[in-house]
Amino acid sequence: MMDEHKSFWKNCFQVGTPACGIALGLLGVILAFLLIFVGFWKTLMVAVFFVIGFLLGARSNKVTAMKAWINKLFPPKGE
Predict the structure, then answer these.
(1) What's the pLDDT score for residue 2?
(2) What is the C-alpha R_g of the chain?
(3) CA–CA distances in Å: residue 38 to residues 23, 33, 67, 76
(4) The pTM is what?
């Protein structure tokens, strides 16, 4: 039973499998409901925050990346 669940979740991220089709279909339904009930701009805001969270969460060296980004926005004095 546990192996079936693991293989399903593994197949959800493999393009061309029925599990991936189901996952992307559900994602489309969720997006449609957000657009209908929340509105375009609020849905876009949720998507932007999701992308920012994903990019920060996927980085292995978060501290170094954040320091480099902050230093790029606000360069230290004398540079």
Answers:
(1) 64
(2) 19
(3) 22, 8, 35, 41
(4) 0.58
